[in-house]
Specification:
44% helix; Rossmann fold; alpha/beta; 2 domains; 5-stranded mixed sheet; 427 residues; 13% strand; binds 5-phosphoarabinonic acid; globular; 5-stranded parallel sheet
Length: 427
């Protein structure tokens, strides 16, 4: 990926970052890079995720999914980091003739029932994913799916792949029923797991080129250096941090590619759960170009000056010419195609923000393919780890998430009231 931070400078935008502030920040980036390199060398928890381009084993992943060669549908049962990476890869890269992919993350009974009623479970492979192996939503959804399979006479043990860590309820289940399984590697937090078995197994089931994905990520890993002026990922992480501390507390991720809509969700989790600590962190918002020009852009251009807009632009797009028309006033569409129109929409939006002095950063990809996406995902993870070092927060923990998981279990056991604090009810 390439990054252009020109429109985030104070020469263009307010809030904006002065060039000399970036130069001073670069000294901290150098220190942070050393810390990251040390963490990677020692395979420390979290930092180990940045080694996945080298440590992931695509052959083992392909071997694990090989028995499911008659699959029509891949159903991933997992939540948060155990679903969003797989969904990102699928929506960006799966071919039209690939098996369909569905996700059960939420435990909304309406949604679960409707989804299961519409699936042919005899042609579905269920990838149940939980790093901890103990997440209530995932285990409950899996039990529902398992029962639905049994009710349809499908041998669920033949149609289930378990993706989990060394221990936990899910590991016990895999061992008890001798289910095919792949390990979530040690040291890789959920939201950093897209390039591990968590993302690669469902991607392989959909025929996605996981070698190219890892190669793109490896290229981004090789490009990490101790300066934000040489490393696109660090330029992004450092600029987002520098803008946040100058008042841009919201980061709107706005890819100009429908296939990257889920990437914006993945990014939102990465940014929120990793950096939202100790009263710090930038609030990620998901948007999609050009669609959200027609819903959110008004606020971004004329609302509070508290936002960074991050664009992701794709150079090489499929050719879909816009047919000629003799309708009056549409001459500007002559000899053009949808990709050119989308690009014009992007440039207009970028210019519109710059013209009103609102900061934006442009992330550029050569194409929406496995190699570029690998670079983008790795680059955003590295940007996030760098930002965590600059904020001085514990990037790889999620105490608020764990608190919620524990509280939900306590409520179900009757050991905690729903509302311990004040109520002010209006009916
Ligand atoms: O990033 C994280 O750690 C979380 O979002 C987890 O991925 C999420 O809570 C699911 O956890 P698990 O994979 O243990 O089921």
């Amino acid at each position: 990926m390439r990054v252009d931070i020109g429109n985030a400078l104070d020469e263009v935008a307010s809030p904006g970052v002065p060039r000399d502030a970036l130069e001073r920040l670069d000294e901290r980036v150098a220190d942070a890079h050393e810390r990251i390199a040390r963490g990677r060398a020692d395979d420390e928890f979290g930092y180990a995720a940045l080694n996945l381009p080298e440590t992931a084993d695509p052959d083992a992943v392909r071997a694990a999914v090989e028995p499911f060669d008659d699959v029509e549908t891949v159903l991933t049962v997992g939540i948060g980091g155990s679903a969003l990476g797989a969904a990102t890869l699928s929506s960006a890269l799966a071919d039209a003739d690939a098996p369909d992919a569905y996700y059960l993350d939420n435990v909304d009974p309406d949604h679960v029932r409707t989804l299961l009623d519409g699936l042919d479970l005899s042609r579905t492979v269920v990838d149940v994913v939980s790093r901890s192996g103990t997440t209530a939503e995932t285990l409950a959804n899996f039990l529902v799916v398992r029962e639905a399979m049994a009710e349809e006479g499908v041998d669920w043990t033949e149609r289930t792949l378990v993706t989990t860590g060394e221990s936990g309820n899910l590991r016990d289940l895999a061992e008890k029923h001798d289910l095919p399984s792949v390990r979530v590697p040690e040291g890789v937090p959920g939201r950093f797991s897209v390039l591990s078995t968590v993302g690669l197994a469902p991607a392989a089931l959909q025929g996605i080129d996981i070698d190219a994905l890892l190669a793109g990520a490896a290229e981004a890993a090789d490009g990490l250096s101790g300066s934000l002026f040489e490393t696109p990922a660090y330029a992004y992480g450092a600029t987002a941090y520098a803008l946040d501390i100058r008042g841009a507390g919201v980061n709107a991720m706005m890819p100009y590619a429908e296939g990257l809509e889920t990437f914006a969700e993945w990014f939102a989790q990465l940014w929120a759960e990793s950096l939202g600590k100790d009263g710090l962190g930038q609030t990620p918002v998901r948007a999609l170009g050009a669609t959200d020009q027609h819903s959110q852009l008004q606020l971004y251009r004329a609302g509070p000056r508290d936002k960074l807009v991050t664009f992701v632009d794709v150079d090489d797009r499929p050719d879909v010419p816009i047919p000629e028309t003799d309708l009056e006033g549409l001459d500007y569409l002559a000899d053009t195609d949808l990709g050119e129109l989308l690009d014009a929409e992007f440039r207009a939006t970028e210019a519109s923000l710059a013209e009103s002095g609102r900061p934006s950063v442009r992330v550029e990809l050569d194409a929406l393919d496995a190699h570029s996406l690998g670079g983008l995902l790795y680059g955003m993870e590295a940007a996030c780890v760098l930002a965590g070092e600059l904020y001085e927060v514990e990037t790889f923990t999620q105490p608020a998430v764990e608190w919620g998981k524990e509280a939900a279990r306590d409520i179900l056991r009757g050991e905690r009231d729903r509302s311990e604090k004040a109520t002010l009810r209006v009916e």
